[in-house]
């Protein structure tokens, strides 16, 4: 009997030791599996693909390089800006007198692009050049010069090892729509039930407004997209000549015209420039654009004299918007159909540069107006001392540009004090600049599918780890069951724990 009891005690001790050992092994195995699962699923060295878009704007050209993980082309939000380079000097449209030099002006930035993209990816990297309102205006004024400029930049880009996809003037509608795609792609708004942002783009020679709307009364202002399984019905309009540089020319030309015939124009007093500002300008620099009429004058130059009076400036700027005629239910200005604005808007490019400089990106419309009034009243000497490092051309124009932006948004697009805070002034979203270029590339490379790709239940890494753990657990349980229930005892009985 004692022997039997001793045997049982021994057996029990053995079983306990075994259970402890098994448990230790299970825990160790568990840790091992998780470690292997994690290490195995650690992102491998990512393989990136690249694309290049040149934004040939009216004031200057920028070269953008985008990159995305090679195996995730069609996932939303995967493409990011890797590098941007501002071409020195003015925009390509300024080469109208010497078109053959337009191409070579891009050299420095294109050489940078060669450095930034791994050599083995060069030949498969698409490169696009899109020209905007500066070239649209040149085409209107001098078609052959615009063609020569495009030929020059096209030929130059083809000397690089990238996959050249063309150099063209994009339409105002494309500029608006692709800006809208960029902002919403980067904000991850596609493929979700979430609403989209409208897009407001202000350049030197044109401005664009784009937002989702239910009803568009004019066919010229409609664009439809199906992206990631959702239909988007867009309103878009691009106002040629309503970029801030051209509006300045229009406003100066109006003042000159109103003085013309009265006296010789020696000094042109301007409420939109600071008191003490006094610069000699050529008439040619104002009247050299299809946006302003012709003027026959014997004089070549005039003095541009600042007054620094915001209310008068506001009155002058308002005159560039023709608000009386509208054959639709609602208009923005110049008889252009526009549904009432609604929802959030991202305002970028010069909207951002100017509002950021003036510290007007937050706060109410009233506050923005009163702050701008104070800023415009500062003498030019004070302004120069306050901002010694800011480019003088920009500095001189911020009072005018700020006034134009507030007037365009309020009187032009019909934003009010109530929805003013729905406008967000943005430069970048994540690493990427807001602008039309990213949307343009996504569209041309078919990187935004019409239908959302089917998503697996779990991400790959999670799936592998889960399956490993599950199989290990099942295996351990089987082992445990075998050991505990099937092992014959010394007395021929089955040992039950
Ligand atoms: O730092 C800045 N401060 C103020 N304005 C800027 C700054 N950087 C760029 N801009 C302005 O932004 C505008 C950009 O226009 P862009 O060259 O894209 O013309 P486009 O889109 O009409 O063809 C120009 O008026 C340029 O002077
Ligand atoms: Ca632009």
Automatic annotation (TrEMBL):
PROSITE patterns: GDA1_CD39_NTPASE (PS01238). The keyword Transmembrane helix applies. ATP binds at residues 204-208. One of its GO terms (molecular function) is UDP phosphatase activity. The active site is at residue 175. The keyword Kinase does not apply. The chain crosses the membrane at residues 20-39, 460-482. It catalyses: UDP + H2O = UMP + phosphate + H(+); CDP + H2O = CMP + phosphate + H(+); CTP + 2 H2O = CMP + 2 phosphate + 2 H(+); ATP + 2 H2O = AMP + 2 phosphate + 2 H(+). Its cofactor is Ca(2+); Mg(2+). InterPro entries: GDA1_CD39_NTPase (IPR000407). Its main location: membrane. GO terms for biological process: nucleoside diphosphate catabolic process. Keywords: ATP-binding, Calcium, Disulfide bond, Glycoprotein, Hydrolase, Magnesium, Membrane, Nucleotide-binding, Transmembrane, Transmembrane helix. GO terms for cellular component: caveola. Its EC number is 3.6.1.5. It is found in: Membrane, Caveola; Membrane. Homodimer; disulfide-linked. Belongs to the GDA1/CD39 NTPase family. PANTHER family: ADENOSINE/GUANOSINE DIPHOSPHATASE, ECTONUCLEOSIDE TRIPHOSPHATE DIPHOSPHOHYDROLASE 1. Catalyzes the hydrolysis of both di- and triphosphate nucleotides (NDPs and NTPs) and hydrolyze NTPs to nucleotide monophosphates (NMPs) in two distinct successive phosphate-releasing steps, with NDPs as intermediates and participates in the regulation of extracellular levels of nucleotides. By hydrolyzing proinflammatory ATP and platelet-activating ADP to AMP, it blocks platelet aggregation and supports blood flow. This is Ectonucleoside triphosphate diphosphohydrolase 1. It comes from Electrophorus electricus (Electric eel). The lineage of its organism: Eukaryota, Metazoa, Chordata, Craniata, Vertebrata. The gene is ENTPD1.
